[in-house]
Amino acid sequence: MLETLGAQLERNERNVRTVHGLERDAVRRAVEVGISDKVLDGFDKLHKKEKGMQENQDARKARSMQNTTRKSWSQEEKRIEEDS
User: Fold this and answer.
1) What does DSSP assign to residue 8?
2) Within its chain, how far is the Cα of 18 from the centroid?
3) 61/16 Cα distance (integer angstroms)
4) Within 13 Å and on the Cβ side, how many CA atoms surround 14?
5) Distance between CA 78 and CA 83 in Å, rounded?
């Protein structure tokens, strides 16, 4: 009977260690997931910011080209007036 009781205690202790190990793994994974989410959110925000900056740069280039075209037309009009 003592051997049976000792075996049962060992089995219970193993089960407790297993459960505690599972709890530690769950906490560790939750922390890893939380960190991963933060990193991925940071990349997402960086990508959106970079995309916005690129769109702003494209818009500035387009305005610059429009201004250049207007100046060219103005210069051409002046030349035509001078020639007339």
Assistant:
1) H
2) 36
3) 67
4) 6
5) 9
Question: How many Cβ atoms from other residues are within 10 Å of residue 80's Cβ?
Answer: 9
- Give 4-60 pLDDT, tens digit per residue: 878 888 888 988 888 888 888 888 888 888 899 999 999 999 999 999 889 988 888
**What is the chain's length?**
84
- Global pTM reads 0.44
Per the structure block, which two tokens stand in for 41?
A: 């959110």
Q: What are the structure tokens assigned to 37, written together? A: 């989410």
| pLDDT at res. 40 | 92
